[in-house]
């Protein structure tokens, strides 16, 4: 298999770019907040990551024209809901243009008031720390203000790979050999780290 060539002007073909990036398996989250009148708002988001342990920061990347991002920006707070394997329908709903994505869904307010979706594997409550330009997306840094407890360790996350939902096969999981180095892996690159 050969790599796709750049166009005459050096531009990368968007379809090829998406296909290649689809080889990277991601978890799926729903980022939520509430409007001033209490109306819940949210969207499905793959571009979520841990950023720093000290201070506790995460990041996500909403499209610049996202209406949900506009509500989050106004509120100054958000909650990351990490979806469980059985929440494919929830993911599809929050990835759609459906006007009332919360219709018929159970949720409770996080400590800061953002919706926590019932059935989520975990949630991370945050305030907006900084926002950076990222092409056709924003890169939003969030400071973690509270966390959920970890539910049953046998539960599995919803994953997205090559444009499809996928999951983890329990019998094929093994502990990472670098577990003792996880803190450095998540927080910073030092002189003796080449990641």
Shape: globular
Percent of residues in beta strands:
25-35%
Radius of gyration: 18 Å
The number of distinct β-strands equals 12
Oligomeric grouping of the chains: single chain
How would a textbook summarize the main sheet? 7 strands, antiparallel
Poorly predicted residue ranges: 187-195
Q: Helix and strand succession?
A: HEEEEEHEHEEEEEEH
Write up this protein.
The chain is an alpha+beta fold and 195 residues long. It is 15% helix and 34% strand. The chain has helices spanning 14-21, 67-75, 88-94, 182-187, and strands at residues 26-27, 29-34, 40-45, 48-53, 56-60, 77-82, 107-109, 115-117, 122-134, 137-147, 159-161, 164-166. Strands 3-2-6-9-10-5-4 form a seven-stranded antiparallel sheet. Strands 1-11-12 form a three-stranded antiparallel sheet, with no helix packed on it. Strand 2 and strand 3 form a beta hairpin. The chain is globular and about 45 Å long. The chain starts with 13 loop residues before the first helix and ends in an 8-residue tail after the last helix. Residues 187-195 have low confidence and may be disordered.
């Amino acid at each position: 298999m050969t790599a796709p060539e750049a166009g005459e002007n050096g531009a990368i073909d968007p379809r090829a770019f998406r296909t290649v990036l689809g080889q990277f398996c991601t978890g799926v989250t729903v980022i939520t907040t509430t409007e001033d009148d209490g109306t819940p708002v949210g969207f499905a988001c793959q571009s979520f990551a841990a950023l720093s342990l000290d201070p506790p920061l995460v990041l996500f990347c909403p499209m610049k024209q996202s209406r949900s991002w506009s509500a989050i920006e106004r509120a100054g707070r958000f909650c990351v809901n990490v979806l469980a394997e059985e929440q494919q329908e929830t993911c599809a709903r929050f990835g759609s243009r459906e006007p009332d994505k919360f219709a018929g869904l159970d949720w409770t307010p996080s400590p800061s008031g953002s919706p926590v979706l019932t059935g989520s594997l975990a949630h991370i409550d945050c305030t907006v720390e900084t926002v950076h330009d990222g092409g056709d997306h924003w890169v939003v840094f969030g400071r973690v203000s509270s966390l959920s407890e970890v539910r049953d360790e046998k539960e599995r996350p919803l994953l997205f790979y090559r444009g499809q939902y996928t999951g983890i096969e329990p019998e094929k999981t093994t502990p990472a050999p670098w577990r003792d180095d996880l803190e450095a892996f998540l927080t910073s690159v030092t002189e003796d780290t080449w990641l």
